[in-house]
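Following the same procedure, sequence and fold were stored together, as reproduced here.

>
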Amino acid sequence: MPGARRSLASPVVSGVLCPCGSPHGSAVESGSGGGGGNAGSCGRSVCEASEQDRRLRALFQKLDVNRDGALCIHDLAVGLGRLGLHRTELDLRKIVKAGDKDLDGQLDFEEFVHYLQDHEKKLRLVFKSLDKKNDGRIDAQEIVQSLRDLGVKISEQQAEKILKRIRTGHFWGPVTYMDKNGTMTIDWNEWRDYHLLHPVENIPEIILYWKHSTIFDVGENLTVPDEFTVEERQTGMWWRHLVAGGGAGAVSRTCTAPLDRLKVLMQVHASRSNNMCIIGGFTQMIREGGPRSLWRGNGINVLKIAPESAIKFMAYEQIKRFIGTDQEMLRIHERLLAGSLAGAIAQSSIYPMEVLKTRMALRKTGQYSGMLDCAKNILAKEGMAAFYKGYIPNMLGIIPYAGIDLAVYETLKNTWLQRYAVNSADPGVFVLLACGTISSTCGQLASYPLALVRTRMQAQASVEGAPEVTMRGLFKHILKTEGAFGLYRGLAPNFMKVIPAVSISYVVYENLKMTLGVDSR
């Protein structure tokens, strides 16, 4: 066809799929005369089944270098090289792993066909996520926007360079020079033809690798929820991620509960006249109630994970729709807004459980028989309003915690992707844990004074003779009597639990993912 743009892909590869986008269709045969066949969605002749099979088999035979009826990594390397498509060994391993259903380390013809079908679906999702204008083409501005949505900043000139030359080996690798006429755009046919035999290294894949809030649980569930890709939502993987994250949080909180209770005790009882240290605090708890007392308040702390996570996720999805964006991924400031509002809604819904957790952690031996008894006592003696003591500083603490946590995490992620993402967007376990630990620690540090005031307000009725004070009055009192240092009482045990909490969360999360059938990326 005159003026048609040409792909750098081999004609054999290009002919595997019909330009109408039909799964593993053939290249279109132009019909002669008026009665050659029915028109397909592309307006050309419908692909014939025998022609499809012939072309697929021809491609398979070209790739089957050793003629044994199966494609191994060596076959793909040599065969694709002959077609002008050079792939790294890592790419080839991904292709074989994706299509190898019988786990024999190679692809027979049926597995090869299924791989092509499944791969085209993934390519459509990637193309759609990059095509912000929904005009069927990808240009430099859309590449810039897609990367900025993830916190990766590049100039339009850099994006044009990505379009001009092949950049496989970088995290934006799929976007390559496939158009020889200089229009600086890529349409669906060019995208599909070139990447038909290339593992999907794409923008949504960065999201899959860089999960944050579903993995890291340091006891303060104020992080901005993670984004889930279209594929994860369609396949139902999102709820498995949430369940795995909830289970990981439960184990992590239980393992670090003694440090969490010590933090609460130091926040409420420590002062200049009562300088409680870590060893002294543990000794005091064990002397008063035995080793089991170290876990007081942990039960309610674990129970509130499920409702809080579920409410936050549902609220986050609804707020995304209210914002009105039709993009798969929100921009950074939209994520912060939606995440903070969702966190506020979730915290408001379960806040009485927060008060119960503090009271249970501070209780004396024999004071309450359990959580229900504690709730009944509070309701009878202090009224319903007691369940919302410290509510305002808690709500105010969401913004600095979520904002700093998200900003630091995105900055660290962006820095790593720019400097070290050579072969994949996968950061590896150590980098992921380090980034999550640093960002969560910074978020906690920024919001800690508000968290301390919240805890003291929640505990007011359980401290004999404690006057009823406002948030502002409590800040003034602490600064006057203890100085600025008084706003950070209990910070040491709080930071001591971060690394074990993150490590335990990650290990349990990965194991639960495997149990629930979630593929580890």
User: Anything to note?
Assistant: The chain is about 60% helix and 0% strand. The chain has two domains: 51-213, 230-516. Strands lie at 137-138, 186-187. Residues 17 and 24 are 5 Å apart (CA to CA).
